[in-house]
Amino acid sequence: MIAPETLKRLEYDKILTEIATLAHSDATYERVMATAPLDTPEQIRLAAGRVAEVRKLISLGIALRLDAFQDIRPLLEAVRPAGAFLAPQDLLLFIPVLSAFGDISRQLAPRSDCPGLASLAPPLRPFPDILEPLVASIDHDGSIMDSASVQLREIRRAKRTLAARIRKKIEEIVRDNAIEIFLQDDFITQRSGRWVIPVRMDSKGMVRGVVHDVSASGETAFMEPLEIIPFVNELENVSAEEKAEEIRILRQLSAWLREDAPALEGCFATLVALDVLNCTARFAERHGLETPNLNGEGALRLVQARHPLLMMLQRQGAIPRVQPLDLEMGDDGRVMVITGPNAGGKTIALKTAGVLTLMALSAIPVPCDGARSTFPLLDTLLVDIGDEQSIEQSLSTFSAHVARIVTILGQAGPHSLVLLDELGAGTEPQQGAAIACGVLRDLQERGATVIATTHLSEIIGFVHRTAGMINAGMEYDAATYTPLYRLISGEPGHSHAVEIARRYGMPERVIAFAREMVGSGGAEFTALLADLHRRRDELAEAQRELDRQGDALRRKQQEVEARAGAIEAARREASDRAWTEARDLISTTRRQMNELLEEYKREKRAETIERLRQSEADLTGQLKPRTSEGLELLPLKEVAAGDAVHIRSLGHDGVVVSVDPRQEKARVRTGSMEVDVAVGDLAAPRKQGKEKARRPAPGAWKAGQVETEEDGERELKLIGLRVDDALDLLEPFLNHASLNGLTEVRIIHGVGTGRLRDAVRDHLTRHPLVAEFRSGGPHEGRDGATVVLLRGC
What we know:
The protein is an alpha/beta fold. It has 5 domains: 4-127 and 260-287, MutS, DNA mismatch repair protein, Chain A, domain 3 (Orthogonal Bundle); 150-251, Orthogonal Bundle (MutS, DNA mismatch repair protein, Chain A, domain 3); 293-498, P-loop containing nucleotide triphosphate hydrolases (Rossmann fold), CATH 3.40.50; 627-691, SH3 type barrels, CATH 2.30.30; 706-790, 2-Layer Sandwich (Ribosomal Protein S8, Chain: A, domain 1). The protein has 23 helices and 24 strands. α19 (497-503) packs across α20.
């Protein structure tokens, strides 16, 4: 149980007030303001899950159908006695509540992704047998409508008819020449519920009627003519019937409410609970809050945490920015002492840790990195923040702090979070530091999680020497002595009081005297801290540089792996295609040979033998390795490092880098790559030495001729070729270009009928080495050429 005083000291009520402004009723507002940490982890997780479900609905654009509504519980209590009935204005308050029951129940009924909301008990349900009569009976201004009952409609119709007859009769009287001369004016009005005409006081005896009122001046008498009295009396009788029918309707509506009062009260409680969840969800959406993690080990880790009140000020434009807080306590230590300059953010860090813990335990999303932050499950949260000097109790600031700390020591335990601001302050520094160290040790022995702030540098050494305790400091700019509001764990801070005093105009003579009083020890401590900060900044920069280099290496590795994968895929595809073609060739040839053998057996003609020999020659020619120009590849008897060779499986030239006789393999450099190939796969190169192909003169090219440019072919001309012949040239051309490291090549196929162009582009669409392709530009042959962008290898 966390004391209300603790909640107030951490300004938790201000956060609840901000959430409560989103409420749709006073009942919801009160419930929000009464929000407190929940008792068990199960309750926290259930409530947090329900808030998350409402946020999901909001993100989908189907927020809960809530409008302003009033608390109906006092009205239900008033209508409980038999015979009691509510006024129309009171019954009107039930309409928005009952409408919300029906709207939300229909909204949630078909959804299976909101189990937490569905588990709210009792579940909302519509009350059409009450809502429909209410809507038909009570108007928006609180009056009873004619549609409330058939009898009321008839009574009011009769009433309107009588009123019209009365008005018509009076108008006739007013226009009568015998009466008109005695009238003060010609208007008709009512006095005490009776229809009257204004008659001059000195002529009232000349008009037959009853005086019901006199004007303030005494010159006019308001008289009811005798002729209309029977009609008015009849109208009053009808009005009495109307009143009786209205009371009957109100009694009937109230009786229906009385009959379902327990169910209505239960559903209203659920509606308020949904409105509270909706307030919390909308507050979280407005400020970008996240659902926190909880742990039972007492660990507290804040990542990119911000104080909610500061976020609200930033949203209002009162402050430009909120500096995030990073803080971690757990296995390395559960006692943290924060030191640093005045106005450096120590107390804000303390309050941020406290108020975010309260929010997390109350199932309210928190302003931090929810995935990496975690909060301890607590039995109690104990704080000593602010000046508790009490004139009535004759307590000084120090005495008040001591009294509060004594109470904390009596309540702290393994599941307690203790926040102590300005520990050891208010008395002589040396003794205050000694007491502070004793308090910290006692709380540590009790197993509590402790965050304390102090200005006493004597405490720093004790914390440094004590296992399980952590020094932390608020970072500052060493050049300007201005606070940066960043918490640095593991490093103590320094107050820099002398430098800050100088910055705010303290006379130099006072500053010099203060430095002498501080002595060399303080100066050395300050210099040591400054050097520590400098080294930490250098280490952080070095780490960032290592991270950048690591990222660059990972990207390079990914590129290499991608290129290797593309090459392997191309190799497998080429190999599969070659095997398929070989099988087809062998199958066709075998069929032809069998046919020729059968023919020879039957006829034994010399022409058949000649055709067999020709088929053998054709098969040999087709299986013999060739270059892309159709030249025969000569096998190599010996291979040595530095030899120029042709790789038959790849159809590309290269240079031998090394030879492995035992494995009968050679490493060959081809283009910008090196590959390992079997020695038997090598042949004499197509191009001798380092001779490079020369570009032919304009108009001197032939169909299928490849233009070269230094490191590899960039252009292939296929005009005049059949589709099959063109595709046979296209495949090795793309392989050569990719191995040479080219990224863009051009294929000239002409326009013609478009068949060759379409076949080429269809082939490019399925090719693993092709990233994309396009028609040529104005200077590239337009639609008679295709420009191909190759994948990186």
